[in-house]
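FAQ: What does the model actually see?

It sees only this:
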Amino acid sequence: MRVLVLGGDGYLGWPTALHLSDSGHQTAVLDNFARRGYDRELGVDSLVPIEDLDTRVAAWQEVSGQQIKSYSGDLCDADFVYRVLREYRPEAIVHFAEQRAAPYSMMDRQHAVYTQQNNVIGTLNLMYAVAEIDPDIHLVKLGTMGEYGTPNIDIEEGWLEVEHNGRKDRMLYPKKPGSFYHLSKVHDSHNLEFGCRVWGLRVTDLNQGVVYGQQTPQTMLDPRLATRFDYDAVFGTVLNRFVIQAVLGEPLTVYGTGGQTRGLLDIRDTIECIRLAVENPAEVGEFRVFNQMTESFSVGEIAELVADTFPGPVQVDHLENPRVEQPEHYYNVKHTGLVGLGLQPHLLSDTLIESMFPIVAEHKDRVNLEALLPTVQWRGGLKKTAG
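And it is asked to produce this:
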């Protein structure tokens, strides 16, 4: 199958492209390298050094004998999007190409506006290009479990059967996102469902949990194939960040009580979920939703796991929560769709956590310690003006 991976230079986009190529799919990647620009803006870098995209692509061809075509450009440039789809003619598109950090979207008005424009408009351009060039393309869109928020009822896979005043209907599950980033993903989901209903698009919306880990079978074949390992308080996911803090002898920074519960999954399961979605496409006019997670933990439980596994003393500090979220809440997520397609999850284990410690130790000199502490306050982006 001809697959185009958008955001193919990123933390998950790059290993996904390798996994699809290794699985026999003709694969291309597209990126505007904005993620590397965020590092320059924030004064941080990936813990593990990463090569430029041209070097990565050449290394993969050398190691595997498989060629990955690359495109450089922005989804917000509609002419570029149309040109790539007409030239490459993908049968499936995997869409990672969005600003993915909640804290980045909450820094101030400019970052909130940028996140919404980049994510929503880029996806709209893509929708129109698919609808006008080849509506049979299957679009696999990376959403987030954060779209749902933390409702006091079970979280279904995208859809909810509702009975109200004696009448029944099936509707998109109500969303209660916690940042302007998560809101952009909600807008995407509604726009894509509309495209399926009105234009007959084929879409799989993967509401992804928090991903941990840095290595996949393909990235381990050569150091030049490594993907990012983010540790900072803006882009670093919580388990990865806690592992780094433990190795450096820094306190694990738990926000608030640590009772916030999240869905998690291993990076190896992330790329396998996408392969399964690509190879089992949605039907014409179908907006299909999978909750892409394998298990759930509270932030406090994750900190305890890291502290118990690390072979040395670990301090856990509870900081005032910079976010506005419920400190304790009900969290029960249905996630059977991908398992039904054949996913065999890698559940979080001591062995997995232990395997991350030497990776961090090898590159610990690259860490900017100041970047580990939260600087973005959910209410801090508001500026009071006179008048």
